[in-house]
Amino acid sequence: MTRWLVLLAAVAALVLGLWQLSRAREFQLFGRLIAHVATDRPLVALTFDDGPTPGYTDQILGILAGRGVRATFFVTGREAAEYPAETAALVAAGHALGNHSWSHQRMVLMRPAEVVQELARTDAAIRAAGYEGPLPFRPPYGKKLFSLPWVLAQQDRLTVMWDVEPDSDPNAGAERIARAAIDQARPGSIILLHAMYESRAATRAALPAIIDGLRGRGFQLVTVPDLLAAGGVAPGPATP
């Protein structure tokens, strides 16, 4: 009986360890990962996950344009292909784009061949919109384990995580979201926002206050590629 308990405890510890590894923001088993850029300059990057989506993309672009901000959008391939006009609008507005997988599934147990396909199809949808810059990757739900980092390492593709996520609670109101983003930012921060769906109205409402509040603290808002350059971090090669 004691032996079985020891075995069960070991299995539980292994499962817990793998779960913690899969969600780690600052570590992965293979390749390069960054969640915050080491810099003394007052620079932060606003990043948006998911989409693009009709209507909501236009709202976000309008807010950013009105305040002269360029951001980084980690788009899903399926939505980028389904809504090419919105994807092209992101490119035309001068924003940076990244790969957020094709299907937005958790990729923890995905086979390498499936990972390659998810990346390639999304790259193609983004390139079809005219984007020519490097395409870093952000894992759906921030989850990764073995095969995903291994494939990313083979492609010399940077994994971009984040150190500030003010709307992690989907029930948070606009004021709370804005205050969290402003208070938690530090030089080199990568701020994750979700604003592409109807359920994320609070984030869209908070966006003007986030921008104004960060600037009030002396921060300059830049794209992820510009933030990486300020920290001397190579973005990785531009994929085909």
Automatic annotation (TrEMBL):
One of its GO terms (molecular function) is hydrolase activity, acting on carbon-nitrogen (but not peptide) bonds. Residues 42-222 form the NodB homology domain. Pfam families: Polysacc_deac_1. One of its GO terms (biological process) is carbohydrate metabolic process. It comes from the Bacteria. PROSITE patterns: NODB (PS51677). Signal peptide: none annotated. SUPFAM superfamilies: Glycoside hydrolase/deacetylase. PANTHER family: GLYCOSYL TRANSFERASE-RELATED. Is involved in generating a small heat-stable compound (Nod), an acylated oligomer of N-acetylglucosamine, that stimulates mitosis in various plant protoplasts. Belongs to the polysaccharide deacetylase family. This is Chitooligosaccharide deacetylase. It comes from Pararhodobacter aggregans.
